[in-house]
Amino acid sequence: MIKALEKDLADNFDIHFNDHALLDEAFTQASYVNEHPNQGLKFYERIEFLGDAVLQIIVSEYLFKRYPDMSQGKLTRLRAAMVCEASFSEFAKECRFDQYIRLGKGEELSGARERSSLLCDIFESFVGALYLDQGRPVVEKFVRTVIFPKLDQGKFDHVIDNKTALQEYLQRHGDVAIEYRLLSEEGPENDITFKVEVIADGKVLATGMGHSKKTAEQDAAKAALSDIRAK
Amino acid sequence: MIKALEKDLADNFDIHFNDHALLDEAFTQASYVNEHPNQGLKFYERIEFLGDAVLQIIVSEYLFKRYPDMSQGKLTRLRAAMVCEASFSEFAKECRFDQYIRLGKGEELSGARERSSLLCDIFESFVGALYLDQGRPVVEKFVRTVIFPKLDQGKFDHVIDNKTALQEYLQRHGDVAIEYRLLSEEGPENDITFKVEVIADGKVLATGMGHSKKTAEQDAAKAALSDIRAK
């Protein structure tokens, strides 16, 4: 099983482990160790403890440097969305790690292999093992492949507002002038509809509508992001 | 103020900042920025976001390597005791960081300088700034001076049991055979008092008593730790 995993890692990520026992450990659950008591096996939990902190610092440092003007509050929300069970369990499946977990029979029958808490643990323990075996630069390369592209794909936009998300996206390579311009106010006084357009470096990206200027701007930013990502 | 801080850092920790503005930022609260709106000041929160993750990884990696047989559960409890507001605010005071925080007048009057949440924030932001300015090895040296000695002094023993704490202490430089030997059982059947001694590499360290063997062993381990630390 570990041979197949090593082939997967080499083919997909150009990762080549030196310490095969460490990789074994990272993919072995306690239930499997309990069923094979005389093999001197270890389970992943300690390495997961380390991997969790490794992911925290790599994601934190990346966000801190990529978004030099983002507030601590937004940075914290973004990090929490990236470094969490829901995200890590998805990444584990994308990396096909679920196939390689060594589980006891009872755990297997109870569907543990599909359980997001286990998948999250395994993602963290893999990263912990990679860090111990190959050092931080190789982990960073892996994270740049697996996690960071999701930022540009808008996967974590829900935790920051659309205007912020659009600004962060447009300004990722440098300063871009972003402007929201009011186009019209229509309807009766107690039910006005505002229409705005969002303009980046003089180019109109999209328009948006809403019952306040603020919601119209958010709507325009959302439309602009969606257009950009459809391209 | 920052000059005095820089002198303190140089004298006490042999730390010499390159980027003085970064150090300023790390010690400046939002309330101070608000009172000086035209000075282009920044407040510490973003750097604190980074510093928190830096401390997590350094403490995690240290515990992981120092205690190769400690379970994830105990590692996690120990890390939580070390990386928390109560600890960091103490460390901040020990480092005399409280003197150097730039606060707005209202915050000063309300006693913010003594508030443990602020002291904790400043400890983290200092570490974040140190990491950005000097890199991880210098932060590790600082943490080795300020945080890690507290482990040997027993500051965090309350989160792991005494037997574990004694074992971790005795085995910090290599394997030591630790044995608990029952010396006596005395008293009526429903109120037996057990007496045990704890032995390390053949040498009796201490004795302990309790109404079960387990509590007597914990008592002996506690006495041994207290003897060791009194020396």
In a nutshell, what does this entry contain?
2 copies of one chain form a homodimer. Chain A is mostly helical.
Q: Structural class of the helices, strands and pairings of chain A?
A: mainly alpha
Name of the CATH class of the largest domain in chain A: Mainly Alpha
What is the number of beta strands of chain A? 3
CATH fold-level topology of the largest domain in chain A: Ribonuclease iii, N-terminal Endonuclease Domain, Chain A
Largest interface, counted by CB within 8 Å of the partner chain's CB:
A-B, 20 and 20 residues
Secondary structure topology:
The structure is a homodimer of 231-residue chains.
Chain A: H1 2-13, H2 20-26, H3 30-35, H4 45-66, H5 72-82, H6 85-94, H7 105-109, H8 116-134, H9 136-146, H10 149-152, H11 162-170, E1 178-186, E2 193-200, E3 203-210, H12 213-230
Antiparallel strand pairs in A: 1-2, 2-3
Helix pairs in contact in A: 2-8, 4-5, 4-8, 6-8, 8-9, 11-12
Protein described:
Chains A, B: Mg(2+) binds at residues 48, 121, 124. Chains A, B: Homodimer. 2 copies of one chain form a homodimer. The first copy, chain A, has 12 helices and 3 strands, in the order αααααααααααβββα. The first copy, chain A, has 231 residues and is mostly helical. In chain A, 37% of the residues are buried. The first copy, chain A, folds into 2 domains: 2-158, Ribonuclease iii, N-terminal Endonuclease Domain, Chain A, CATH 1.10.1520; 162-230, Double Stranded RNA Binding Domain, CATH 3.30.160. Chain A has helices at 2-13, 20-26, 30-35, 45-66, 72-82, 85-94, 105-109, 116-134, 136-146, 149-152, 162-170, 213-230; strands at 178-186, 193-200, 203-210. Chain A has a 3-stranded antiparallel sheet. The first copy, chain A, is elongated, with a radius of gyration of 23 Å. The interface between A and B is medium-sized, with 20 and 20 residues.
